[in-house]
Specification:
This protein is mostly helical. It is built from 17 helices and 2 strands. The longest helix has 30 residues. It is found in: Cell membrane. It is a multi-pass membrane protein. Pfam families: TrkH (PF02386). InterPro entries: Cat_transpt.
């Protein structure tokens, strides 16, 4: 009888020790364990619509895509998976979204030393230890807030699905699925045709657009703005940078996509002006990491693909369900360029000075991310006979956990699918833990070498 409590105690001691010695390793281990469990559930015969076991690579790919809230698929989600399989995918999206938000929030708070290291990692691994104190309240707030927003989106979508002829139970299920998938920026669709039939439907698409945009901001921004909703001056610098940069990218992306695709017969040309405006706005928001599409991305112009590559690589807000290098990383580097052009000594924004260490982390995250994309693209080019434009689009989409695709994912050979699996996992957890690790490794030196400037540029 004592073996059970003894084993539990040893497990808790191992978690505590891992949290103190290697918090990033513990967080990544827990996330990998979740993917393994979801893979096992999707490998069951009853998880598929035809009642046969899914190939391991397909189950693993889908589990990774759902848990990392990416949205890339190798099989048609609404047709291939049974109701059980779709429920497992939805559960993976919910766990992945909440787990990543909690992990990102706590690693971000670790930089300011506001909570203990062991507490942070216990929370990020989604345990239910009662001694978490204030961190437990944070997790409850994350869960309640995200679930409430998902419920609002589902309620907005439900009547429209009824109007389109779906029975009440089916409409409720699809509304809930789309709501969770939208807020968590997952991009999974429960129906064979996805959102293509609603390409000009503002009532259906606007709640999804809002859900994706809010989810891509990140929980720290949502909480900060909610606390000071009527006092924007009290919003912190992170919230202001995230909101302004995100809105700017949405406007820029929507306008440029409309300009490129306006006369494209495969995408926007058949639409009326209202439908084109909606499709452009939708296409401008989805590279935030949403991954939904109302038109065939594979039919877009190569120039549009290049634009979407850039938007996906940036991604959404820090500590959010979105991927990419994050909009604040882009904002900090742009502000540094402006400061350098003006000859200013400090990088400033909204009446605040940004520390040099923040710029160093932004540069490191961007360079490492670009290197990962480069290596993955080279591997995929070697494994397939596809062109660089399609490979680069797919690679960035996987790394940025966006889920947009030109249609090549399902046709990739198994080794290439495994590369995308690794890329999705790194894209969801790698840049975040790298940023936190770099920030936590800031050290003071007693002796500093003499300064000398090399020639740059």
């Amino acid at each position: 009888m004592a073996a059970g409590p003894g084993l539990l105690w040893r497990a808790r001691e191992y978690v505590d020790r891992s949290a103190r010695q290697s918090p990033a390793r513990l967080a990544l281990g827990v996330f990998a364990l979740v993917i393994a469990v979801i893979t096992a559930l999707l490998s069951a015969p009853w998880a598929t619509a035809h009642g046969e076991r899914a190939p391991f690579v397909d189950a693993l790919f889908t589990a990774t895509s759902a848990t990392t809230v990416t949205g890339l698929v190798v099989v048609p989600t609404g047709e291939y998976w049974s109701g059980w399989g779709l429920a497992v995918i939805l559960l993976a999206i919910k766990i992945g979204g909440l787990g990543v938000m909690t992990l990102a929030s706590l690693l971000g708070m670790a930089v300011s030393r506001r909570i203990g290291l062991t507490q942070r990692l216990l929370v990020s691994s989604e345990t239910k230890v009662t001694r978490l104190g204030e961190v437990g309240s944070l997790v409850r707030t994350v869960i309640v807030t995200s679930t409430a927003l998902e419920l609002v989106i589902a309620i907005a979508l439900f009547p429209r699905l009824l109007v389109h002829g779906e029975p009440v139970p089916t409409a409720a299920w699809h509304a809930g699925f789309y709501a969770v998938s939208a807020f968590n920026n997952a991009g999974f669709v429960p129906t064979p045709d996805g959102l293509a039939p609603f390409v000009s439907d503002w009532w259906m698409l606007l709640p999804i657009i809002i859900g994706v945009f809010i989810g891509s901001l990140g929980f720290p921004v949502i909480l900060n703005v909610a606390h000071h909703l009527r006092q924007p001056r009290r919003w912190n610098l992170h919230s202001k940078l995230t909101l302004t940069t995100s809105l700017g990218l949405v406007v820029f992306g929507s306008v440029v996509v409309a300009a490129f695709e306006w006369t494209n017969p495969g995408t926007f040309r058949p639409l009326d002006p209202g439908g084109t405006a909606l499709a452009s706005l939708f296409a401008g928001v989805m590279p935030r990491s949403g991954g939904f599409s109302t038109v065939d991305v594979g039919q877009m112009h190569e120039g549009t693909w290049l634009l979407l590559d850039a938007l996906m690589f940036v991604g959404g807000g820090s500590a959010s369900t979105a991927g990419g290098i994050k909009v604040t990383t882009l904002a900090v580097m742009l502000l540094a360029i402006v400061a350098e052009g003006r000859g200013d000594r400090d990088v400033e924004a909204f009446g605040r000075r940004i520390p040099r260490e923040t710029l160093q982390v932004a540069i490191a995250v961007s360079f490492v991310s670009a290197t990962i994309v480069l290596i993955a693209s080279l591997l995929l080019l070697a494994m397939t006979g596809l062109t660089l434009d399609r490979i680069l689009f797919e690679t960035i989409s996987a790394f940025a956990t966006c889920g947009l695709t030109t249609g090549i994912t399902a046709t990739l050979p198994p080794p290439a699918k495994y590369v995308l699996v690794v890329l999705m996992f790194i894209g969801r957890t790698g840049t975040m833990t790298l940023a936190a690790a770099l920030a936590l490794r800031n050290r003071r030196r007693v002796i500093r070498y003499p300064e000398e400037r090399p020639i740059v540029g």
